[in-house]
Amino acid sequence: MLTGMSACRQETPPSAAPREHSAGSIARQVSLCSRLYTTEYTIRKFITFSDDVRLKGSFLSSPFDIKLSLGDRKVAIPLIVSLKGYVDLSGFSEDNVQKDGNRLVLTLPNPQIAVSASKIDHDNIHEYVSLLRSNFTAQELEGFQRQGLDSILSHLDKTDMEEQTRSSAVNTLMPLLRKMGYRDEQIVIRFRSDAEGHGILDWINIENLHSRQKKQHP
Amino acid sequence: MKQTFTNKPAPSAEPQEKRTGHLLSSLCKGFGKGLWTGLSYTLRLMARFPALPLAAVVIAAAWWAFAHFSKPDVLSVQASKSIDVTPEEIEAIRDIGQWEFVSFQTEELTDTTDRHWYGDRKWARIYTGTLRIGIDLRKTRAGWFAVQGDTALITLPQPALLDKNFIDEARSRTFYIKGKWNAAAQKALYLKARSRMIRRGVTAGRLNMARSQARRQMTNLAKGLGFKTVIVSFEK
Predict the structure, then answer these.
(1) Please, which residues bridge with residue A74 across strands?
(2) What is the pLDDT of residues B152-200, one digit of tens each?
(3) Cβ of residue B17 closer than 8 Å to a chain A Cβ
(4) Is B138 on the interface with A (CB under 8 A)?
(5) pTM above the 0.80 mark?
(6) What ipTM was reported for this prediction?
(7) Would you give the end-to-end CA distance of chain A in angstroms?
């Protein structure tokens, strides 16, 4: 469900084009895409970390775990992540459209989700470190931030973001299809699991969409 | 020629054997005597302290059990490295209509130095992010998609950077740090990196690339929907 840059086509700059140089530039990758971003989720998470020093071991096959009283080391980091749901239209062609009399059936690839941005709320980071303990290093704090982001991404399947992206994609494309002269009841938009068309997961038409939205927001 | 021989008796092996036998027998006797002395001393000690054999057996058993059951990593001081399990809160859900045509994945090394008479502080960070160039469908004017027979007339807004918040700060990392830095310095470094990334990433060449890609993709879409002719233009 979550993708990075893989769906985009990498573009090699023409040799005649002037080359750009920057002392600070480390890595560059330009890609051509056609992604229709239809929904954006802003997720906030308080990353907390409590660093207890423990004496662990075993004696005569009996394990023991004792907390050593060397003082606490705690940190709380607010992380704000922006996720965007999109439909990849790079492979869109006549094959995605079926016309059956007055009825138009549009088949789109299943939505995907990408991390648009992540931001640390530096003003609200709180650290508590006892006298006997060392301060958190920048590398330690960055490690916790990465863990926090990974945690958010691993729980994406528990959100309705994919469904929301489908609904928003329909809402975005509908005005375009209406301009072509189709009425709402004549339009069917369905989504399949991948661009190759293997396994249609489900489909959405306008009536279904309205009934779902009514259920969600009565 | 007169030969003289001295008749010295040849040394026989018998006395040597006798000497070796004497040595062995004396050693055995000495060992036996020592053993007997040690045994009698132990017996006397046991008679005097009757609990001593029991204590020796207990110590031997404890030593054997410790050696048998304990492992080399029996004792260790550990500090946790994983973050706590905390909930994630959805702050906002927003419908958007952004069509991305060019993306630019980049990293930027940004540094700052604070000079003092007692020593300099320095901090260098590598920021990572993806700049996305495309069109915002919410900025289209009325009548941006017009139909004339089998011809589609599409007028799009100029492609631009879709979102100014594109840095993945959670994946950014410190390259070098000396001294303690506050939140204001963090934010200043972030903004410096962002402005550099935009200056380098959103160029006239890339905007042209996005225009060409938008034209190609819109034509594909409209032709896929059944239009014979598609004319794509951009707002001035």
Answers:
(1) A50, A128
(2) 999 999 999 999 999 999 999 999 999 888 999 999 999 999 999 999 9
(3) no
(4) no
(5) no
(6) 0.76
(7) 29
